Amino acid sequence: MKLLIKGGRIINPAENMDVVGDILIENGKIAAIGSSCPAAGAEIIDAAGLVVTPGLVDMHVHLREPGLEAKEDIASGTRAAAAGGFTTIACMPNTRPAIDSSIVVAGLTQRAKTEGVVKLKIIGALSKGLEGRELAEIGDMIESGAVAISDDGGHLDSTRLLKTGLEYTGMFGRPVITHSEDEGLANEGFMHEGAVSAVLGLKGRPAVAEDIAVARDIMLAEYANAPIHIAHVSSKGAVEIIRQAKQRGVKVTAEATPHHLTLTDEELRTFNTAFKVNPPLRSAEHVAALIDGLKDGTLDAIATDHAPHAFEEKDVEFRYAPSGFAGLETAVGVVLTGLYHTGKLTLPEIIAKLSYGPAKILGLDSGVLKVGAPADITIIDTEYKWAVDCIKFYTRGKHSPFESRNLKGKPLITIVNGSIIMQNGEVLK
Ligand code: DOR
């Protein structure tokens, strides 16, 4: 089968490519990229006025399988990913049981083949049962295909365990991903600590809790000479600590989320639980620092931290609601509206952080457009105007801080291994 994507603006960050041209797909692989490719016998996608990018990669997703399928599972989560323009996602291990053994990694990999519509990579737990006491079967999980190791969802208190985990994971050339918030300081806080939390009378999670944890985690990685990736960076101090560590040559990478890049704690004034997340939404100076960090390369990736919860779990009084919300289906629209249409980041910069950047961190061969490579491609209309409607999401998580917002920019087509799996918002598998 042949597919020709014709006349689109092709952005391929791995090669600094930004040209108008065609991409020919044959038998699931990219057969040619050029100013004009032969159309004979091919189904044609007219991409004039659209942006053609490597299939987007989200390195931070909670799929909730196994055990928490009321919130999400591989079938619903990978469909949400396809709707959002992602062709590869990596799922976090805070499931029940936790993804802490090679059996669970192998089982999920198998399930992804039958249930999934996009490519699924698995992140294994650092500690058994995510309890922070004993190392999980890190080597076995990596041999079974785990691409990184993390106790995400909470901070790993034990410096000893993180040090050993970094040393061990680093031997396989894989990163440990940390949720860096000092529990002693942040614990039981509901939102960013600052003027708004004081007015609302809600216990805060101070930015310094993140700064301290990021500094500690980076010091351990530096000592172990092992790769570390800091998840969902949200504080100005953390950005600066990561910047300095990179300058010293520490093997540190980091991500920011669409919500931390575009929203502030002012939103919490409504007590709407859709804005409750860890780390919390912070103040405008932190948001500005994150954008600077993306721009100067301190932050390598944009990742959603897609954290769906069942509707009734979030539909409770603010303090009782779980943290997190759906992110896969709004990410591209939010980032284009908040960062591209405002002139804060260029389109190639944004696409790099959503494809090549995260793929490189996880050691994947995706996130690039290359002749001979699997045809994982996303086609985006940067000018498409739409309003977020959570009820229409493919994810089971029907809460979003962007509910009812008008966004500009949307993925129109998602292609995995040369097959169109999403077109005009509809997932076809
Ligand atoms: O708000 C959050 N929810 N932050 C996390 O790090 C974990 C996530 C979840 O799993 O629900």
Can you describe what's shown?
The longest helix is centred in the middle third of the chain and has 18 residues, at 207-224. The strands form three sheets. Strands 1, 2, 3, 4, 5, 16, 17, 18 and 19 form a nine-stranded mixed sheet that branches. Strands 6-7-8-9-10-13-14-15 form an eight-stranded parallel sheet. Strands 11-12 form a two-stranded parallel sheet. The protein has two domains: 2-52 and 374-427, Urease, subunit C, domain 1 (Roll); 53-362, Metal-dependent hydrolases (TIM Barrel, Alpha-Beta Barrel), CATH 3.20.20. The protein is globular. The protein starts with a strand and ends with a strand. The protein is α/β, with parallel strands linked by helices and 429 residues long. 30% of the residues lie in helices and 24% in strands. It comes from Sporomusa termitida. Residues 50-236 form the Dihydroorotase catalytic domain. GO terms for molecular function: allantoinase activity; dihydroorotase activity; zinc ion binding.
Distance N to C terminus: 18 Å
Assigned CATH architecture of the largest domain: Alpha-Beta Barrel
Gyration radius, in Å: 20 Å
Number of helices: 14
The largest sheet, given as strand count, sense and whether it forms a barrel, is: 9 strands, mixed
CATH topology (fold) name of the largest domain: TIM Barrel
Q: Provide the domain count.
A: 2
Spans of at least 5 consecutive residues whose pLDDT stays below 50 are none
Percent in helix: 25-40%
- Structural class of the helix and strand makeup? alpha/beta
Average of pLDDT: 97
Q: Please identify which CATH superfamily of the largest domain we are dealing with.
A: Metal-dependent hydrolases
Oligomer: single chain
Would you count the extended β strands for me?
Answer: 19
Percent strand equals 15-25%
* Bound molecule kinds, no repeats: (4S)-2,6-dioxohexahydropyrimidine-4-carboxylic acid
What is the CATH level 1 assignment of the largest domain?
Alpha Beta
